[in-house]
Amino acid sequence: MGNNAQGAGFALLAFGVFATHDVVIKFLGANYSPFQIIFFSTLMSFPLVTFMLIRDPSQGNLRPVHPWWTALRTACAVINGMCAFYAFSVLPLAQTYAILFASPLLITLLSIPMLGERVGIHRGVAVIVGLIGVMVVLRPGSAPLSSGHFAAMASAVFGATASIIVRKVGREERSVVLLLYPMAANFILVGGLMIAVYKPMPLPDFGGAALISLMGFVAGLFLISAYKRGEAAIVAPMQYSQIIWATIYGYFIFGESVDTPTIIGAAIIIASGIYIVARESGKGAASQTPVLRTRSRGYGASFRISPFLRVRKPEN
């Protein structure tokens, strides 16, 4: 089996685990606030991530090189997690994923003002088409937009912003800074918000929060393995396999059905995302590749893999 095939296989496995991770979020979200789920899953992520940070070979302290960018990224990561957890709790899985898939489109747009990169006509049109796909999923005017829809859109925006900031300052910041600051913020800020809505968790539900942490960690390791073996242009589109898992899980576990606008809109968004990846992959080592060079799938308790990819393997 070739390296790209191995990379694609590891990526499919990673995103399958991530999809299962999101199912547990949806289960717990029926009874607990996103604040409580994030707090406990983050708390139980600290030991797992600590083992990875022990291997961090870089020298230095925990003071960020770019404090304001680090603070902004931390705020974006926290809001991203809260919005994503809430969206998964109240929206059908497939619909949530369809909206979150807009993140690569937003990364392409944000790379213009934040990274000073140039987006050509082809990728510009792909972004516009992809955003039209989001409108097809949301179908404003024909169906009421709920707080879950706005939360999913906010998650895509803040997640894309956090990813772009990693792209901007990631080479100068230590992995430990990029990882621990959002986790510490989740622990402190979300923990404070949780006090007002806290509900006692029986042992099985507490175990569910631990399972979210474990699956996010394991899926992250699989994704690192995928990018170490395969080209980013092959691995990145594998994230869209989550829509398949969402359809299966949604139907058999939650009794959800995928309506036609969601199918059409998701197809448009996925096609636009794959086109952007294909265009960026053709540029080789050029700087105009914000999506391929921002390789993460992380919110809430999931750690972002980009810092570890930077340490282990040079950027494509």
Low-confidence spans = 311-316
Q: Counting H and I runs of at least 4 residues, what is the number of helices?
A: 14
Mean pLDDT: 87
Q: What share of the residues does DSSP label as strand, in percent?
A: under 5%
User: What is the helix/strand order?
Assistant: HHHHHHHHHHHHHH
Terminal CA distance = 22 Å
The number of domains is: 1
Shape estimate: globular
Q: Would you tell me the structural class of the helices and strands? A: mainly alpha
Question: How many beta-strand segments?
Answer: 0
Helix content: over 70%
Q: Main beta sheet: strand number and arrangement?
A: none
Could you state the oligomeric state of the chains shown? single chain
Task: Tell me the radius of gyration.
Answer: 18 Å
Q: Main attributes?
A:
316 residues, mainly alpha, 14 helices, globular, disordered C terminus
Secondary structure elements and their pairing?
Layout lengths: L2 H27 L4 H10 L2 H8 L13 H24 L2 H8 L2 H13 L5 H18 L8 H23 L5 H20 L8 H27 L2 H4 L6 H11 L7 H22 L24 H7 L4
Helix pairs in contact: 1-4, 1-10, 1-12, 2-4, 2-9, 2-10, 4-8, 4-9, 5-8, 5-12, 5-13, 6-7, 6-8, 7-13
